[in-house]
């Protein structure tokens, strides 16, 4: 954080937001990075999305983990004591399933959530230590997309890295493989990763999940503009942008866009920007990649893991893959 402009101390501009907005909106077509969704309001809207009838991802993955938590923990632990690492601060109830299964097996477990947000980590720490006795939370503040290291574990300990929730879906296949390679490098032989990926399915179901009837996803998408208005003093009219979800069948991804309806000029004084938006012009805000059966396993093999097991639901809509460092 850096302070730009002296008169008002509330004009605190996050340099990361400023440079991302500047880069994306100067590009043609215009785009904004999907991490910008997650301010406090956006994180709440995302929680709401996970409970929508159309958004099958969370409940499908949860049912897979409910059914197989014990087996996952047993396979990952072998005869060793397990530690759980989670990329992202932990979507409480899915993480809880694995932590509870681990506590049932070994009484106590070290849980290491990794996140860029110290406040998200502190929330996770308090919630989990209160709700699951036996869990010791040791948060790590870092951006896992920029590579990372983990402290060495003692002999007889193994790590299981949870990268669930289709979080990897936000990255292009090449970026995703780089992240998985970094995870593999940070681990020791015998350690594992648990990866949750959303699978390719009929486009009607996919589109509904990203364009729900109640309009929560639309609000989540537009919230990015609300955030830019607040943080950078921009004058976007979020309501002038229509939420669009598109299935890109060549790249196997759902894309979210904000479509401008009427010609308008948007000013971002803190960035010295004046932007012309033509009628029909769009801002690309997110990619959510969908995987083909076997694709996640192939990527994991490519970067040094050996796939151990894959679990899916009856419809084959979501997959959870366990893979070990060989
Ligand atoms: C948090 C990246 C898994 O891609 O489904 C939900 C985000 N975007 N609805 C997803 C999201 C629109 C979500 N991930």
What's the topology here?
Elements: E1 2-3, E2 12-13, H1 15-26, E3 30-31, H2 40-49, H3 56-77, E4 81-87, H4 92-106, E5 109-115, H5 118-131, E6 135-137, E7 140-141, E8 157-163, H6 173-186, E9 192-198, H7 203-209, H8 216-232, E10 241-248, E11 253-260, E12 264-268, E13 273-277, E14 282-289, H9 295-302, E15 305-312, E16 318-325
Parallel strand pairs: 3-14, 4-5, 4-8, 5-6, 5-7, 8-9
Antiparallel strand pairs: 1-2, 9-16, 10-11, 11-14, 12-13, 15-16
Helix pairs in contact: 2-8, 3-4
Bound molecules: N,N,N-trimethyl-histidine.
N,N,N-trimethyl-histidine is lined by residues 49, 57, 165-167, 169-170, 210, 217, 286, 288.
Can you describe what's shown?
It is a single chain. The chain is of the alpha/beta class and 326 residues long. Helix content is 37%, strand content 27%. The chain is built from nine helices and 16 strands. It has helices at 15-26, 40-49, 56-77, 92-106, 118-131, 173-186, 203-209, 216-232, 295-302; strands at 2-3, 12-13, 30-31, 81-87, 109-115, 135-137, 140-141, 157-163, 192-198, 241-248, 253-260, 264-268, 273-277, 282-289, 305-312, 318-325. The strands form four sheets. Strands 4, 5, 6, 7, 8, 9, 15 and 16 form an eight-stranded mixed β-sheet that branches. Strands 3-14-11-10 form a four-stranded mixed β-sheet. The protein has a two-stranded antiparallel sheet with strand order 1-2. Helix 2 (40-49) runs antiparallel to helix 8 and helix 3 (56-77) runs parallel beside helix 4 (92-106). The protein is globular. The two termini are 41 Å apart. Residues 49, 57, 165-167, 169-170, 210, 217, 286, 288 line the site of N,N,N-trimethyl-histidine (AVJ).
């Amino acid at each position: 954080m850096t302070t730009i402009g002296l008169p008002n101390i509330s004009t605190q501009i996050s340099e990361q937001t400023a440079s991302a907005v500047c880069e994306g909106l100067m590009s043609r077509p215009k785009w904004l990075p999907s991490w910008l969704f997650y301010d406090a309001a956006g994180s709440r809207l995302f929680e709401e999305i996970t409970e929508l009838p159309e958004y099958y991802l969370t409940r499908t993955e949860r049912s897979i983990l409910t059914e197989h938590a014990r087996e996952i923990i047993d396979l990952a632990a072998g005869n060793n004591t397990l530690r759980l690492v989670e990329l992202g601060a932990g979507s409480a109830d899915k993480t809880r399933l694995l932590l509870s299964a681990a506590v049932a097996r070994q009484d106590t477990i070290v849980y290491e959530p990794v996140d860029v947000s110290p406040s998200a980590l502190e929330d996770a720490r308090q919630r989990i230590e209160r709700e699951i006795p036996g869990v010791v939370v040791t948060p790590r503040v870092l951006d896992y997309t920029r590579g990372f290291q983990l402290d060495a574990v003692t002999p007889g300990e193994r790590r299981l890295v949870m990268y669930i929730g289709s979080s990897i879906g936000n990255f292009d296949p090449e970026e995703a493989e780089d992240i998985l390679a970094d995870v593999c490098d940070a681990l020791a032989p015998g350690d594992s990763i648990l990866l949750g990926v959303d699978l390719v399915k009929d486009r009607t179901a996919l589109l509904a999940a990203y364009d729900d009837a109640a309009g929560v996803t639309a609000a989540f998408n537009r919230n990015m503009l609300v955030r830019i208005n607040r943080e950078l003093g921009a004058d976007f009219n979020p309501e002038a942008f229509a939420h669009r979800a598109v299935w890109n069948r060549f790249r196997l991804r759902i894309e979210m866009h904000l479509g401008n309806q009427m010609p308008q000029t948007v000013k971002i004084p803190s960035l010295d920007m004046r932007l012309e938006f033509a009628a029909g012009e769009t801002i690309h805000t997110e990619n959510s990649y969908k995987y083909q059966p076997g694709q996640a396993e192939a990527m994991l093999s490519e970067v040094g893991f050996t796939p151990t097991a894959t679990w899916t639901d009856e419809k084959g809509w979501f997959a959870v893959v366990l893979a070990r460092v060989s």
